[in-house]
Amino acid sequence: MAHDHHHQHTDTHSGTHAHTHDHTDIDWAEMAPHLESQAELLAPLYESALGWLGTEVTEPGLVVDVGSGPGVVSCLFAEVFPGARVLAVDGSEPLLERASARARRLGVADRFGVLAGELPGVLDKLEYPADLLWAGHSLHHLGDQRAALAALGERLAPGGTLAVLEGGLPSRFLPRDIGIGRPGLQARLDALLEEWFARMRADLPGTVAEPEDWPALLESAGLVRARSRSFLVDLPAPASDKARAYVTEILSRLRDSVGEGLDAGDRATLDRLLDPADPASVARRPDVFVLGARTVHTAVRPR
Question: How many alpha carbons lie under 13 Å from residue 72 in its C-beta half-sphere?
C-alpha cells in the first residue's frame, strides 16, 4: 500500500480526487506527476488545514505524514512548522524519492526524512514518538481502521496530536444542467462511486465494517479532545488550465472505474466532456469550477 492520496483518489468520495484504489496494479512512479499537480492545485485548502492545526499543536519536534505520497503536504508541514523535523512515510519508494527531491528544492532537506514500508507496521521504525501524526486519505486503504488508529495513537508522544483527513463532501466541477445530456450527471457519478468505494473497502485484507464516526473512533483508540473541522476547495469559474487538467483527470478516472454503471446517454455526455475537440468539453467550456470540502479530525494522546 502506498499513500496519502492527496493523491490519486477519486476520492470524490472524501473530497476531490481521482482514485482507482486498485492497489495491486497502480504504477505510483507513473502517477507521481498527477499526484503532485493535484496536491499543488489544492494547496490553499491544505494550507488552511495546517494553519488550523498550528493553533492546536504548538512547536512540534517531530511531524509524521502517514501515507505521504510525493510529499507536497509533507513539505507544507516543514514550512508551517519551521522548528520541526518532518518524516514522510509511504509504501512507495518512487513517491518518497519525489518527496525528498521536493524537500531539497524547497530548502528544507536538512530536517526532512523519508521512511518506506507498509502502514501501520512501518511506524515501529520511528526512532522517537511523534508530536503530530497526519494521516491524509490513507486510513481508508487499511482493512481495520480502528486498529490502525490505535497503532498510530501509540506512536504519539504524550500530549501529541493525531490528525486524520477523511470525509467531507463530494466535489462539484460543473453546474447541474450543462446544456448537454440529462441534468445531474455528477450526482449519478457520486452514487456509483459510493457503491464502488464500499466494494473497495469490502475487498481489503482483514477488512472490518466500521461506522465512519471518526471522533468516536479516535476516542476508542484512547485519545481525548476529539475535534473536527472542514476546509473548502473553492476554485471558481473560469477555471485555470491546471484546474481544467485536474477535472479532466478525475472525470477520466471515473469513466474508467465506474463508467460502465452509467446509461448510454450519460456515457455519451461524459465522452463529450472528455473530448478536447468538442466545444462542450471540460477543456473548452467556460463554466468549469472546483468546489468541495475536506474534513480533518484531531485528537490528543493523554499526558
Answer: 22
> What is the C-alpha to C-alpha distance for residues 112 and 281, in angstroms, rounded to an integer?
41
pLDDT in tens, the chain (303 residues): 333 333 334 443 433 333 333 444 567 778 888 888 888 899 999 999 999 999 989 999 999 999 999 999 999 999 999 999 999 999 999 999 999 999 999 999 999 999 999 988 999 999 999 999 999 999 999 999 999 999 999 999 999 999 999 999 999 999 999 999 999 999 999 999 999 999 999 999 999 999 999 999 999 999 999 999 999 999 999 999 999 999 999 999 999 999 999 999 999 999 999 999 999 999 999 999 999 999 999 999 999
- Rounded to whole angstroms, what are the CA distances from 166 to 55, 137, 229, 274? 20, 6, 11, 28
Q: How far apart are CA 39 and CA 48, in angstroms?
A: 13
User: What are the strands, taking DSSP E only, across 30-107?
Assistant: 62-66, 85-90
Residue with cell 492520496: 5
Torsion angle of the four alpha carbons 40, 46, 219, 190, in this order, in degrees rounded to the nearest 10:
-60
Cβ atoms < 10 Å from Cβ of 90: 32
